[in-house]
Design goal:
The chain contains 5 helices and 14 strands. By secondary structure, the protein is of the alpha/beta class. Strands 1, 2, 3, 4, 5, 8, 10, 11, 12, 13 and 14 form an 11-stranded mixed sheet that branches. Strands 7-6-9 form a 3-stranded mixed sheet, with no helix packed on it. It has helices at about 5-10, 25-30, 85-90, 130-135, 195-200; strands spanning about 20-25, 40-45, 50, 75-80, 100, 105, 110-115, 140, 155, 170, 175-180, 185-190, 210, 215.
């Protein structure tokens, strides 16, 4: 199975030249480290930055340069810093080509729950609701099962929703899925090296759609 960096590396293969991309908190932030050198993109952070670079080396951090998850970052040549109102104007006017988010649960129709567990203190929704309501293309980076071994790919989300019918693709430690909204289900596209279709079925509570031979993903 893939580790968090493996998930990020696989998602990086979905990125196309010229994209404006928003990276969510958690695994999505790792994607910045795996964008190919010959692919030119602009990474956007909703706290007010266009042009995020890779994470800084230890000792080279600048505490004034952070992403939405408050991690220190670097900037690329030509980057721009502005207020969050302008940043959310970009998001709401659909200027972002691809959004990569983490999630606690995803339903078989593409609903996402990513911000709150009832009874636990949270600071707020953040930018997630705006992103899922406005983005043209949303990929979820997540672990397929929780710490108890229960699937996070469900018939219906049980946690408070961030957005409905908005997710297009999911990459987990086990596989790559596309949401089939017509039939309702997780269409299996690729499996992680060494992971069988049967193992993926056992870890998927929602409807799993398997058509033909499922290829093994290539990360290099």
């Amino acid at each position: 199975m893939l580790d968090k960096n493996g998930i990020a590396k696989r998602i990086a293969k979905e990125i196309e030249d010229g994209f404006y991309i928003n990276l969510g908190i958690g695994i999505p932030t790792l994607v910045a480290n795996y964008i190919p050198d010959d692919v030119q993109v602009v990474l956007q952070s909703e706290n007010g930055l266009l042009g995020i670079g890779p994470f800084p080396y230890e000792g080279e951090e600048d505490a004034d340069l952070i992403n939405a998850g408050k991690q220190t970052i670097t900037t690329m040549p030509g980057s721009a810093i502005f207020d969050s109102a302008m940043s959310f104007g970009m998001i709401r006017s659909q200027k972002v080509d691809l959004t990569i988010l983490g999630a606690m649960e995803v339903s078989e129709f593409g609903d996402i729950a990513s911000w709150k567990i009832p009874g636990k203190l949270v600071k707020g929704m953040g930018g997630a609701m705006d992103l899922v309501a406005s983005a043209k293309n949303i990929i979820v980076a997540m672990q397929q099962v929780n710490k108890h071994g229960d699937s996070k790919l469900l018939p219906e989300c049980t946690l408070p929703l961030t957005g409905k019918r908005c997710i297009s693709k999911i990459v987990t430690e086990m596989a790559v899925f596309e949401i089939d909204r017509e039939r309702g289900g997780f269409k299996l596209i690729e499996r992680a090296p060494g992971v069988s279709v049967e193992e993926i079925k056992d870890a998927t509570a929602g409807k799993l759609i398997v058509e033909g031979e499922v290829r093994e993903m290539h990360l290099n």
